[in-house]
Amino acid sequence: MQRLHADGMEQGNGTEVVEFVLLGLAQTQEVQFFLFILFLIFYSLVLPANILIILTIQRDRRLGSPMYFFLANLAFLDICYCSITPPRMLVDFFSQHKAISYRACMAQLFFLHFLGGAEIFLLISMAFDRYVAICKPLHYTTVVNRGVCWALVVAAWTGGFTHSIIQVILIIRLPFCGPNQLDNFFCDVTQVIELACTDTYQLEFVIFINNSLVILVSFFLLLISYGALLVRLRAGSSLGKSKAASTCVTHIIIVFVMFSPAIYIYCRPFCSFPMDKVVAVFHTVVFPLVNPMIYTLRNREILSAMNRLMHKHKLWRGK
Prior knowledge:
By secondary structure, this protein is mainly α. The protein is 71% helix and 5% strand. The protein has a single domain (18-318), classed as Rhodopsin 7-helix transmembrane proteins (Rhopdopsin 7-helix transmembrane proteins, Up-down Bundle).
């Protein structure tokens, strides 16, 4: 007969962790309340903005090019990604016992890497789109057609799923029988693996290689590709080339914004550093919602389409 202890472990024939305790971002109520207000305001403002980006691209026929198709998918991925940890984090600010069940922890871990990996592969698809548009402009409409766009999106989701399921399969085989406190506000590989009741050196190496192949290889591949495109465009002075160069610069900004915290968190030994929580907040809450906004603020076509959409909405309500 098993009985559940208050510390989140079952006792019977053995001891097994059934929940993890999240220590959160802060311990004092004043700081927690301040962070709650701050993140709630940010989440309430930027999340609808990303939804507006998707609606604008879907409803404006002038934004029917593959670039905007990929941008809408990026915004959708970011909305899904930011629905994994922030809502629970906001609730936990007012919870005395910040606990998450073992199954919920594994699910959170899976979706974080699933959606994060899918976004990385989607950025590669966007780089391919820019390469064809700049280097093969006469064949652009035939090479990057609607079918190819959907195939690239499906490939991005498949790649993210494969990357994530590998890590989850490796983690769920570990025994957890000791401490169950995670010094963070969500479950992730780097914290969970440290609580395993076995030697995890080899497993950490395998997960490190998995993360490095996806993150570092994609990071340098994207930088090299966009760098080569900028060099190719440097000699041109026409308006079209200037706009293409501006788009490439925007993509490079997104690459740095997205990959910098990911490299810091996953492409190093699994041990704690003072800045881990701060970087985790930017990686899981701030940057994903800001990514599509960077595209929007640097793109006059989307801003104009948004103004037209809002104007039509006001006229429709006025009637």
